[in-house]
Amino acid sequence: MTHETPHRSGFACLVGRPNVGKSTLTNALVGEKVAIMSARPQTTRHTIRGIVHREDFQLVLVDTPGLHRPRTLLGERLNTLVQDTLSEVDVVAFCLPADQKIGPGDKYIAGKLAPLMQGRRPVPVVAVVTKSDLVDRARLAEHLMAVDQLARSMDLDWSAIVPVSARGGFQVEELTEVLAAHLPEGPDLYPDGELTDEPEEVMIAELVREAALEGVRDELPHSLAVSVEEIVAREGSGNDTSGRPPLLDVRVTLFVERQSQKGIIIGRGGARLREVGTAAREGIEKLLGARIYLDLHVKVAKDWQRDPKQLQRMGF
Ligand SMILES: Nc1nc2c(ncn2[C@@H]2O[C@H](COP(=O)(O)OP(=O)(O)OP(=O)(O)O)[C@@H](O)[C@H]2O)c(=O)[nH]1
User: Could you tell me which CDD domains the record lists for this protein (predicted)?
Assistant: First the structure.
């Protein structure tokens, strides 16, 4: 045996504006679908972790809800959550998509990262240029310089700048190595094979939210919260000899802010809500590996985004 490399383990956090490709990159790094993705910004409200497990390191990924300029209490809560998450990780990956110029949103996030990078126990930040498959080499080179300039203009230093494409798998392995290099020495944090510690309820809520927003995103921008009330096994199901999976009753409440939004979700004669149920049920059955009966309720919780009690009830 040659000399042993130390085993490393720790946390990495992906930050960046909405829609820059954090979920997709998390999935590419982990190599398995862990985060529920959306074609629209700001739907990943919960911290989702995936684990990159190699012989000599274990890298636990935390996908953040995204840093936004706080507009509502919900926004502020999210920012606090993000800040708390950030101060606890070993390395931050700041995602800046190659196909978009660096803008105020990126500068805002860089401003939030600055104190972490300059603190007593500085957190290294790796600038990750995502979606690099969308631009040509010249544009990519230009963007890499702009990313470098962003740090310089704030008297900061990225630990590295890594262009990647989660789509094509370009440089994903390199990024893994760069992030792992910043982890402290330590044993595995999670047992082998455990790829996500995301509670099932959060994933179920995301699936229902996705289905409910399908086609009506513009009408229901950020006014929809989903809460999984209970998951219970239907009595007498699943423990017979037929080998059929058990039947689970899944009760879910969708909270909207206005009566008119309730109408949008439910649709004429309840038609839309039935569609939502059908679409969500498919994903949930796959997730749970069981047949389910999905019971959806729609409630109006006025101004829930601004009400701390309501927020708490919904797990924010
Ligand atoms: N071409 C290309 N598209 C990508 C890549 N990564 C992500 N996308 C697309 O960019 C969009 C946003 O990706 P997400 O992974 O959902 O972005 P996100 O940053 O997690 O978004 P939020 O959850 O809103 O914060 C999706 O339509 C992806 O398919 C990439 O490497 N190449």
Answer: Era, KH-II_Era
